[in-house]
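Hi,

Apologies if this is the wrong queue. I'm a grad student, and the batch job for Ubiquinone biosynthesis protein from Jiangella alba produced an output file that my downstream script rejects. I'm not sure whether the problem is my script or the file. Here is the sequence I used:
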Amino acid sequence: MDVLTFPIVATFSILTALVFGLIAQRLLGVRLGLFRLLLTGAFAMIVGPLIMYALLGQFTLSPQGIPREGEGWVVFWFALLGSVLTVLASMAFLVVIEAFVPMGSLPPALVWGRGLLGRLRRTRRYWQIIGIAMRHGLGSYLRGTRDRALDVPSGRSQLGRALTNTLNAGGVTFVKLGQILATRRDVLPAEVADELARLQDDATPVPWPDVEKVIVAELNAPVEDVFAEFDREPLAAASVGQVHLARLHSGAEVVVKVQRPGIRPVVERDLDIAARLAARLESGTRWGRRMGVRPLAAGLAEAIREELDYRIEAENITAVATAPSRQPDVVLPEPHLALCTERVLVMDRLQGTPLNRADVVIRQHDFDRDALATTLLDCLLRQIVLDGIFHADPHGGNIFLLDDGRLGLLDFGSVGRLDGALRDALQRLLVGVDRGDPLAVSDALLELVPRPDEIDQQQLERDIGRFMARHTSGTPSTGVRMFGDLFRVVADHGLAIPPEIAAVFRALATAEGTLTRLTPRFDLIGSARSLASGYVEEQYGPEHLKRAVTEELAALLPILRRLPRRVERIASAAEHGRLGINIRLLADERDRAVLTTMLHEVLLTFLAATTGIMAVLLIGTGSGPQLTEDVGLYELIGYNMLVISAILALRVLAQIFRRG
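Support response: The file is valid. Your script probably expects a header line. Output copied below for reference.
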């Protein structure tokens, strides 16, 4: 083949392949990408000559390739049948591909090739994490061979230790995942959560030149143009970012939170690996399915991604600070929004000591520990019950005891949010617990959780009654134990705690550790019951009720004005026998589309079956004119009808596989 002939042949082959691919696509009623079109056309060009040879091999042609006299039309119809069979084969090839590799399940070839290097790095990291897990004793749990060991506390503790050591060796993202996971006592056994709580987030500080590059890139200005002073030594360093002290040109003392350079690609890669491992655990282990590790991993990944965007933290601080029920004795740092970007957060400095290291300061200034604990709990409960936006991680490191004796809240990278309906149900739950009313508690609980189709409400009320008798009378229980028992009751009845409510219990359990460190005798449950009851009484006091009634009447007034006229119209129509009800079936366009698609598929299936039966009958008929020694006219017609039947059936199958 010479140089000029090759491009012509190649162009003709590609065009022919495209034609066959387009014909198959049109007959199947689906849209394909260019790669699948060419692949289908190439298959047709390979199979087509074989089919033609099998059909036309029975004819005797002259040396010039011309059929014998009288066989020209017969050869034409057989050649046409061969072409149709080639298209049918390409359609079948497409349906098989769609069944095993649906459209969209693989990235386009260009993207696949571009991301090959990244996938290789991710695969290497994936097997690295698997190797770390194996070395720290997590392999048997990954394979699901030690599921029964988790039925006893010692087995769960061993899993917690193996998981903690694995996450600690896995690096930044996995340490962060473990820290957030340690607070999810609503889904994790207490023994596992206790082991995960040992994870530390300390890290080696980033050198100043790298920190300076991030600040300059984010603020589009040299550091000295933005800050009058900047301490190059970090105040604290964690796995995601580190904090520096600085002073603005206005004289305001601030802290600057700077994200580690290049941390986002590392975190995204590791989160993808964590999602794959979660899917493997949920599909391959009993304890993974029981814990729901796949949605759990998705929720943790979302929380970590929010922490990577410091603009979200600045917005969270502003939202909590401007809430109507903000506690005045608790201070929040004010963010300088003009200087807050995705990787840099600038906010006012709070002069004080972290609460988990403030014992000496409390003794020196003789601060009232009980008053501080009550103020902190009151602030948190007001955020939850009244405002619907609250600090989701109130541990001792995020709470400062200020020099003037007030409390300060830091680190709003993770906050919880509750809508009005959830807040109302939560208020009724707390009031029911305070009054010892199992019926009210169970009703409020069913409003908090997605209600299943079938539930034994009477048994739920009995279990709630036993739960309340255990935890709300006699010796006060710890919040962690109480929340654990409540989650157990919920799980036993097939209910699922929404993430928003789980965040509430998680925040309260975290706050209990801070409060009991501040004052060991502090009763979280009793104090929360009394404070929450006070909030409800505040909301339903005379002034609040008067305002609520006024607002409801203002909304109902237009309806009440129109009501007599509408009632009179209905009565008049009934009196004169003209009262009727109009019901529009399939008024929604989506319902009509579903019904139309269903009817089309049923019709195509019926036509395919009918044509196939007729084809079989014609093929089995022995009489009729003979076109060749082996094939008669009726048989040829039957073969063509059989091809039509197959095309219709393949079209239906293609639509079914594409929807799947």
